[in-house]
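quick q for whoever's on today - can somebody do inverse folding on this one?? i tried earlier but teh output was garbage lol. tokens:
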């Protein structure tokens, strides 16, 4: 069961390992990222960032969907992390076990505008976010658990 899917360009780092994991109360971390699957050094770095005693799985988006759709995953509490909202959408379209998405930050790029703290979106991102809201319903912007969540649905009205 996915407790939370977080979009974070940095994937697993100190803020996620310390604040989010204690707040989410998950027993396992799932990193879903196609690029990391091709980068052995990135895998090693992610394994080093994993808190002691926490299980970690690193998969492609398709591999993550297979893992989440496997009935053996039903009894496991999972904190899933993807790098982009596009990856969040790809994963959400392949499984029905994602019910809450947290967007921690989207880097500024050409043609983007700030819509929440550390969240820059362009027109394509807005379309992706709207589709995520349709699929999942609960999509929020929040850097750390102590911040007040900002509903993507309300911000995109």
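ok took a stab at it. sequence:
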């Amino acid at each position: 069961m996915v407790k939370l899917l977080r979009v974070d360009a940095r994937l697993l780092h100190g803020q996620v390992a310390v604040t989010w994991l204690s707040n989410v109360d998950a027993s396992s971390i799932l990193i879903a990222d196609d690029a990391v699957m091709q980068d052995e050094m990135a895998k090693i770095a992610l394994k080093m960032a994993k808190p002691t005693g926490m299980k970690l799985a690193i998969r492609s988006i398709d591999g993550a969907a297979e893992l989440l759709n496997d009935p053996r995953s039903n009894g496991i509490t999972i904190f899933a992390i993807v790098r982009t909202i596009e990856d969040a959408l790809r994963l959400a379209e392949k499984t029905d076990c994602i019910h809450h998405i947290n967007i921690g930050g989207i880097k500024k790029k050409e043609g983007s505008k700030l819509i929440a703290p550390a969240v820059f979106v362009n027109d394509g991102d807005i379309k992706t976010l709207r589709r995520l809201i349709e699929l999942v319903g609960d999509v929020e912007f929040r850097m750390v658990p102590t911040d007040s969540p900002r509903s993507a649905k309300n911000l995109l009205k």
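fwiw Residues 123-136 form the longest helix (14 residues). also Residues 9 and 83 are 4 Å apart (CA to CA). so keep that in mind when u check it
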